[in-house]
Specification:
single chain, mainly alpha, two-stranded antiparallel ribbon, 3 helices, 2 strands, 57% helix
Length: 115
């Protein structure tokens, strides 16, 4: 299995970070929605407990969102070499594709020198 390039994680952080801010807004609005629903159903709900849980989730989403957004949008951009995945090489004896870091061919069992 080939490793993922570092740019894949930066791209994922660029998308996930801002989405976590939207999740924080949703968690902040959750107690209001629960209060309206409990009133409409004429059932008692522990709104204080719901507010505490909602606040905890909203703060967590904001903190993680800030961290991911900073990681995704700030810092050095990966170089061209880091962005492209290493290409497999072929065994000169049997022609089987090998990972660049492998030294022993799984097809014929011959040992290769690292290039």
């Amino acid at each position: 299995m080939m490793p993922l390039p570092k740019s894949a994680f930066k791209g994922l952080a660029k998308v996930t970070g801002p989405l976590l801010f939207w999740m924080a807004v949703g968690w902040a609005a959750y107690p209001v929605a629960m209060q309206h629903m409990s009133e409409a159903m004429e059932e008692a709900a522990d709104i204080a407990e719901i507010r505490l849980f909602s606040l905890t989730m909203a703060v967590s989403c904001v903190c993680i969102g800030i961290a991911l957004t900073l990681y995704g949008f700030v810092g050095q951009q990966p170089s061209e070499d880091e962005m492209k995945a290493p290409e497999p090489r072929l065994c000169p004896y049997c022609g089987r594709a090998m990972e660049p870091q492998e030294q022993l061919c799984t097809g014929c069992g011959k040992t290769m020198l690292k290039l």
